């Protein structure tokens, strides 16, 4: 009996901490779209057009402590991202580390796996050595293959915002790719 009460209490308390989310589909170039499950407390905007190289989805809090999330689905012309291997993605993520290494507190930056629902991915987290006023202290950045898209992402946060990073990584793990006039996902979950 005590175990049943404990389990019920635990399940009720976990549901209090789980934030509601909306599934949003963002139309991209060339008939592609990406679907993300976004917490309802976040707002989003899609920036796209001929003047920018890649569409970018920006996510921020509706209220409260600020953070920024930038997601850029890369549409490959003539050759899809499904040919992009885990090794290629890891190499691109490592190149990102090499660019910011001098600004990071960490001497060694660990590349971590982020296997999505439809493809491989990697990411890393670094601490800015000297953030200026109004800048963020932490950056989590990486790339994951989502169907036929290579999706780069960056999460910018400050102290006490690990939950934002965790939710962003979960969102990237569960992202889906669709093509125009497609009734089913390009890379269905198994």
UniProtKB/TrEMBL annotation:
Signal sequence residues: 1-18
Key words, A-Z: Signal
Superkingdom, taxonomy of origin: Bacteria
Protein name: PsbP C-terminal domain-containing protein
Organism: Sulfuricaulis limicola
Lineage summary: Bacteria, Pseudomonadati, Pseudomonadota, Gammaproteobacteria, Acidiferrobacterales
